[in-house]
Amino acid sequence: MLVTIANLRDSSKIRVLITALKAHGFHPMESGQDGLAGMPGVRGYKGTYAIKVPEAEARSAKILSDDLIKEMESKD
Question: 62, 6 in Cβ contact below 8 A?
């Protein structure tokens, strides 16, 4: 089962987070693996993109993603 660990509006930050999670050995779901078929631009709840990881990785991946989001937002 997949667990959502982050929701962001900025697709650039989503790409950075997915890359960082992969670099740290996590397995985030790639965009296009969920949602409506043939509609890759469809966003989720309140216009956000979600990052989902396997349930077994969720706790550690959330800690990393929260730290990275905090760092990215401090630079905005």
Answer: yes
Q: HSE on the CB side for 7, CA within 13 Å?
A: 8
Cβ atoms of 67 and 15 within 8 Å: the answer is no
Closest CA to 40 of 8, 5, 7, 11: 11
Percent of the chain with pLDDT over 90: 53
- If one compares 28 and 40, the residue with the highest pLDDT of the two is 28
If DSSP codes are grouped into helix, strand and coil, which group holds residue 8? strand
Tokens of 17: 């987070």
- Res 31: pLDDT: 58
